[in-house]
Amino acid sequence: MLTIENLHATVGGKPILNGLTLTVPTGEVHAIMGPNGAGKSTLAYVLGGRPGYEVTDGSATFDGVDLFALEPHERAAAGLFLGFQYPVEIPGVSYLQFLRESLNAQRRGRGEAELSGAEFIKLARAQAATLGMDAEMLKRPVNVGFSGGEKKRAEMVQMGIMAPKLAILDETDSGLDIDALKAVGAGINSIMRSPDKSVLLITHYQRLLDYVRPDRVHVLSGGRIVRSGGAELAQELEREGYAEVAA
Amino acid sequence: MTVLPTRRDEAFRYADIDALASVWSDLSPPQTIEIAAQQSLQQIWLPSGEDVQVRRVDLTLQAGASARIFALNAAARYGRIELDVTLHDAADFTFDAANIGGGSATLEIVTTVRHVEPSATSRQTVRSVLGGKATGSYLGKVAVSRGAEGTDSEQSVKAMLLDRGATANAKPELEIYADDVKCAHGATVGELDRNQLFYAAARGLDPASARALLLEGFVGGLWDGILGDDQGIADAARAALKAVVR
Fold this sequence. Notes:
The complex is a heterodimer. By secondary structure, chain A is an alpha/beta fold. Chain A has one domain (2-246): P-loop containing nucleotide triphosphate hydrolases (Rossmann fold), CATH 3.40.50. Chain A has helices at 40-48, 72-77, 95-109, 117-130, 148-162, 178-192, 232-246; strands at 2-11, 14-24, 29-33, 53-62, 65-66, 80-83, 90-94, 141-142, 166-170, 198-203, 216-221, 224-229. In chain A, strand 1 (2-11) and strand 2 form a beta hairpin. Chain B is of the alpha/beta class. Helices cover 18% and strands 44% of the residues of chain B. Chain B contains four helices and twelve strands; from the N terminus they run αββββββββββββααα. Chain B is globular and about 55 Å long. In chain B, 43% of the residues are buried. The A-B interface holds A 48-51, 71-73, 75-77, 82, 84, 87-93, 97-99, 101-103, 105-106, 109, 141, 158, 162 and B 193-196, 198-207, 209-210, 213-214, 216-221.
């Protein structure tokens, strides 16, 4: 599904990723853990195509396609979903309109028929219900006045609506209380746990991994993967700290 | 007919005088509208489709009257709205307007709101979206007469510039001869937020669609206060935005 080889990237001329190599096979959930400043969010943004995050060497192949040859919106249409650590507020634009236009833009890009207003609302209601979110909130402007937890739930509702092949979730667990954490974890499992989908979970803490059990855990430090292992590696990190494990 | 103004006239400081000259001899005097005490009026002003469109209105609100004006100023070459409003006791005036243009369009909104008696309220909200080498201006004077205590007025002016060659002018002006009045005004000029653009792109919107959607949000709130049929102003604004975004 996703193959990253020897990835080097800079932000504002400063090297952040320094030869990162990683493969996420189809049907698997991989977690990337690491201390602050390791390059976790940079990895997410580079894969999403954020302007200002410059790839200087290496490659990323998504479903057989050169990811870096695609514009950010083309990556979305190809089936990549980027869950934001800090979801952005858009005053004056309702969630329903934002998501309907986004989904239909993706569908146009794939040569699929667009959804009508009624079809879209039905889909949005069903996905909101799955995440335990009041569908009325989707009538409000995008993320405006949402609490931290509500924003993260809304990200998961968006993921459910977009139905991506690959989700890259950047610290989706940050700022969540325990109920929201459970709901988000259950959402990830129900939307993305499938033989034809993959997830790259980027997280600082192990607690989300209690709800979404990863197939592999990778430790990111200094812009490279320094260790990989099974789900038990997350517990080891939690117990012994990054300094010990990443050394 | 009076002589053609020049740009030395403050109210025509940013005007396209050549374009104005092309319609000057045909220009009728300002339309006069008077709203009787306790009555209310709503008007929606759409572009005529002409390259040059000048609209001039003198509006008087008697005691307790209210008026809501919604305007889309989007002529291809020169669009000018001149509005002179006189507010009597406890009258209530709201004006929501958009300047939307690209190319070399000059769009301007020139208002004078006179609070001549106590306790009247006025709210003006102007949003401009300008691309190419377009110029969008708002010159707005609020004059509060002696004795017009309890006046409450507000001017909110925001502009979004899409290209380097575009220009926005905002000049809210206050002339106050009464005590105990509230006159708020604010003006900002900016460009689209990069974080919002990337967020929209990450959800699948191509750059032109993302810009159009964000601009629709910027302008869209103007029409929220319309009672009943909006006579197509929201659609017309959306179409004008699409043309500016390209």
